[in-house]
Amino acid sequence: MINEERVIIKGNINIGATIAYKDKSEKRPLVLLIMGNGSLDRDGNSFGFKSKLYKDMSDMFVDMGYVCIRYDKRGTHESKASGINYGLSDLVDDAASIIHYAKKLDNVDEEKIVVCGHSEGAMIATLLTKNEDLAKSSIRISLSHLTSEEDVLNFVKVFKEEVNKLRSIRG
């Protein structure tokens, strides 16, 4: 059974996030999911559009033994920011704040943190992994070439197979 906790992470702005995990009995590697641009919520949904892409990815990582955090990016949903003037460096700082928060959680192995970014989130993930104190590795995803629901479902299947082959973080 997957457990989820909705939290507000305090930093330069308040960031709405969901922490997903199987149990809190031992430290586990963390995957931080970073969404692409736009106004999707942390689950991958928007007004009139329900994909649950990030929720489904989170569940997949938790089933594989990770703790997973997904969040509403700056200026959207529960991550309110005053004004609309912010840039990529602000989004990187927000993700770094979440990692600092996660490293203090009892069930997160602070030495085993992976950032998984989709679209704009892939750029943020790349910048985060330049600082090895924040994250040891990243998964960068682009779906812009996919044109149908069947393409997306096939991508998710192949993505899960490839992630299952990774052993460097899980050991």
How would you describe the overall organization of this protein?
This protein has 171 residues and is of the alpha/beta class. Helices cover 31% and strands 28% of the residues. The protein has helices at 53-63, 88-103, 120-128, 149-165; strands at residues 3-10, 14-21, 28-34, 45-46, 49-50, 67-71, 108-118, 137-141. Helix 2 (88-103) crosses helix 3.
The gist of it:
This protein is an alpha/beta fold and 171 residues long. It has helices spanning 53-63, 88-103, 120-128, 149-165, and strands at 3-10, 14-21, 28-34, 45-46, 49-50, 67-71, 108-118, 137-141.
Brief descriptors of the model:
single chain; globular; 171 residues; alpha/beta; two-stranded antiparallel ribbon; six-stranded mixed β-sheet
H/E element order? EEEEEHEHEHEH
- SS-based structural class? alpha/beta
For the secondary structure, the number of strands is 8
Number of helices: 4
Stretches where pLDDT falls below 50 for ≥5 residues? none
